């Protein structure tokens, strides 16, 4: 496993994904009962945007850099507050943006005392860094494990309420098939959980096959969100990203529709930029 997220941390796909993740966590907090979030491909948790790796690609500049380049408009400030606040907290005392949080940091910062996080990472060095970032945190369990296995062995959570984030690196062939297999197994064990599955937009035919297979599973309440920031540049260039949401909060689609014009205005790179919504199964 060679993928290192530091090269891509804070890019447009991260921003889109993490805004959705924060909205889901905020929704779960509306009920007093505790819940657990399982992040199957957690990474290291916190990324230094001044590092050589981040500078090499500079992807964050067209992501979080562009989004926070000017003040957030009042009409979307409330919805973006959880996402923004975590970033500001991680950069407290810095005059400029230095750190960008990964999914486990965003999630952990938003949890209440009764909630729990399980952060899973397979890459040995990244796992060690992740464990260091959460050392002494009794609310977070960090595991050195293949994230795909957790979709079977760690469900259902003992809290009986949960959110499962599956964000694979897509560095190997077959990730879409593993997503289908993983979510089917997970849903059988924990049908009441909220699931978010991330994927890159590169090859349209591969995505079409994935969506067709997902539809055939018969799993109800599947919402697809996609953000495309530009026309396709090359066959291997990521020009957008998508999120498959199973049992999404009932307000999420409405919230994302409200955020879409702002996100496209800040992150879009040409006139073809758009955010789309589609229910694969509504009930």
Automatic annotation (TrEMBL):
<dbReference type="GO" id="GO:0036307">
    <property type="term" value="F:23S rRNA (adenine(2030)-N(6))-methyltransferase activity"/>
</dbReference>
<dbReference type="GO" id="GO:0003723">
    <property type="term" value="F:RNA binding"/>
</dbReference>
<dbReference type="GO" id="GO:0005829">
    <property type="term" value="C:cytosol"/>
</dbReference>
<feature type="binding site">
    <location>
        <position position="121"/>
    </location>
    <ligand>
        <name>S-adenosyl-L-methionine</name>
    </ligand>
</feature>
<keyword id="KW-0489">Methyltransferase</keyword>
<feature type="binding site">
    <location>
        <position position="167"/>
    </location>
    <ligand>
        <name>S-adenosyl-L-methionine</name>
    </ligand>
</feature>
<keyword id="KW-0808">Transferase</keyword>
<feature type="active site" description="Proton acceptor">
    <location>
        <position position="167"/>
    </location>
</feature>
<feature type="site" description="Interaction with substrate rRNA">
    <location>
        <position position="3"/>
    </location>
</feature>
<feature type="binding site">
    <location>
        <begin position="146"/>
        <end position="147"/>
    </location>
    <ligand>
        <name>S-adenosyl-L-methionine</name>
    </ligand>
</feature>
<dbReference type="InterPro" id="IPR002052">
    <property type="entry name" value="DNA_methylase_N6_adenine_CS"/>
</dbReference>
<dbReference type="Pfam" id="PF04378">
    <property type="entry name" value="RsmJ"/>
</dbReference>
<dbReference type="InterPro" id="IPR029063">
    <property type="entry name" value="SAM-dependent_MTases_sf"/>
</dbReference>
<comment type="similarity">
    <text>Belongs to the RlmJ family.</text>
</comment>
<feature type="binding site">
    <location>
        <position position="103"/>
    </location>
    <ligand>
        <name>S-adenosyl-L-methionine</name>
    </ligand>
</feature>
<dbReference type="InterPro" id="IPR007473">
    <property type="entry name" value="RlmJ"/>
</dbReference>
<keyword id="KW-0694">RNA-binding</keyword>
<feature type="binding site">
    <location>
        <position position="18"/>
    </location>
    <ligand>
        <name>S-adenosyl-L-methionine</name>
    </ligand>
</feature>
<dbReference type="GO" id="GO:0070475">
    <property type="term" value="P:rRNA base methylation"/>
</dbReference>
<comment type="function">
    <text>Specifically methylates the adenine in position 2030 of 23S rRNA.</text>
</comment>
<keyword id="KW-0698">rRNA processing</keyword>
<protein>
    <recommendedName>
        <fullName>Ribosomal RNA large subunit methyltransferase J</fullName>
        <ecNumber>2.1.1.266</ecNumber>
    </recommendedName>
</protein>
<comment type="subunit">
    <text>Monomer.</text>
</comment>
<feature type="binding site">
    <location>
        <position position="41"/>
    </location>
    <ligand>
        <name>S-adenosyl-L-methionine</name>
    </ligand>
</feature>
<keyword id="KW-0949">S-adenosyl-L-methionine</keyword>
